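Researcher: I'd like a structural prediction for the single chain below. Treat it as a standalone chain; there are no partners to consider.
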Amino acid sequence: MSEPRWLTDEEQRVWRAYAQASSLLHAHLEGQLQHESGMPHTYYEVLVALSEAEGRRLRMSELASVRGSSRSRLSHAVARLEAKGWVQRESCPTDKRGSWAVLTDSGFAALEEAAPGHVEAVRETLFDQLSAEQVRQLGEISEAILAGLRPKCQAVREAEEAAELAAPLAELPKSG
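Model: Treating it as a single chain, here is the predicted structure.
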């Protein structure tokens, strides 16, 4: 086994500042949405993805991919959004195993109501703290991090989904 590549003092300082800033920013935005709109950030992100899609609809598998979520986690979120009347599922006519998530008018109205407060919270807590140059740098840094993470995260999602599909098969009686 190789020696760990320990962080330098500067890397440790940057890592801790980044981790704390990310955590606090996420918690602040989560709280803002919950307090002002009564919805978790995850639901807001699903509504946004659907609102930006052609016809305000996406296949569940595509929505999971866009959101960077496993299909089972997304299915749970969509079930909650269905219960609120904000999303409805429709069967896919070309693939009986597939389904579409469709943003309802009520869901679009909920998103329109939540968006101004959320955008203001993002602006106040992130962009108002940075210069134009820092915003550009943050974009480049974020894209570099995402480029490194996407293949690893996709592999994890695929493994989770394979395990989810295999679980019901493991419960079937063995013939022999």
